[in-house]
Amino acid sequence: MKSSGFTLIELLIVVAIIGILAGVAYPSYQSYASKSKRTEGQRELLRIANLMEQYYLDNRVYTENMKNLGLSKDPFESEGGYYKIDATVKGDTFILTATAQGSLASDDAKCKELKVTDAGQRTPSSDCWD
């Protein structure tokens, strides 16, 4: 009589292989997810910078109040809720700051805060803007 099935050793080997693959794949997935959420913050920053320039053309002054730009809140919250965006105005210059919210703030620590100036300068490093 021949028995069929898997031995305990074979099952343990399969579980170990799955564990190793998951351990390698999860950090890559987490990095990809953070990068895709960061894109939302970048897109909104550039859109609001465009609105700021239009406001400046119409009024000869920048505004810190996002509602003056036709946005719903001040500070503005991105569509997915991953970023809050606020403006700082000093004379004829502005800095827009997108600050990561919730789990993204800890998952994407090096790019927690994205900034754009009236001159188009983007900070932090280019790694956060790729």
TrEMBL record:
Gene3D superfamilies to which the protein is assigned, alphabetical: Glycoprotein, Type 4 Pilin
Keywords: Membrane, Methylation, Transmembrane, Transmembrane helix
GO cellular component, one term: type II protein secretion system complex
GO biological process, one term: protein secretion by the type II secretion system
Transmembrane segments: 6-29
NCBIfam families per UniProt: IV_pilin_GFxxxE (TIGR02532)
UniProt-recorded name of the protein: Type IV pilin protein
Species, as recorded: Thalassotalea euphylliae
